[in-house]
Amino acid sequence: MEGCARASEKDFLRFVDMALGSARELEFQLDIALQLGFLGENEDLIGLAQEVAKLVAGLANAFNKPRESSGPSREQRPPKTEDSRLKTED
Asked: Is residue 56 classed exposed, middle or buried when 0-12, 13-18 and 19+ CB atoms within 10 A define those classes?
């Protein structure tokens, strides 16, 4: 999926949102193609496009949901410093 190698979650979500928009546009275009007779009734392309849109929407919702965590996220953690307990005295 485009955007999967982005550095931040916010960037990745922007691409997920674009993918969802594209999936919804495809549904609309397939519906028009069906109404104009370019698709047969037995072709389930609209159903497949709807399924993809649901999966992408689920991915977006999973990232937008508040998460239960046992500690601060990676962005909220203070920088690592040397632990004085790990130092050995010479």
From this structure: buried
What would the DSSP string read from start to end of 46-70? HHHHHHHHHHHHHHHHHHHSPPP-S
Tokens of 58: 């689920």
The number of CA neighbours under 13 Å toward the Cβ of 82 is: 4
pTM, two decimals, is 0.60
Single-letter residue type at 2? E
Residue 17: helix, strand or coil by DSSP? helix
Check if the beta carbon of residue 63 is closer than 8 Å to that of residue 30. no
Helix or strand or coil: residue 26?
helix
pLDDT tens-digit series, residues 23-41: 999 999 999 998 999 988 7
Q: What angle do CA 69, 66, 15 make, to 5 degrees?
A: 115
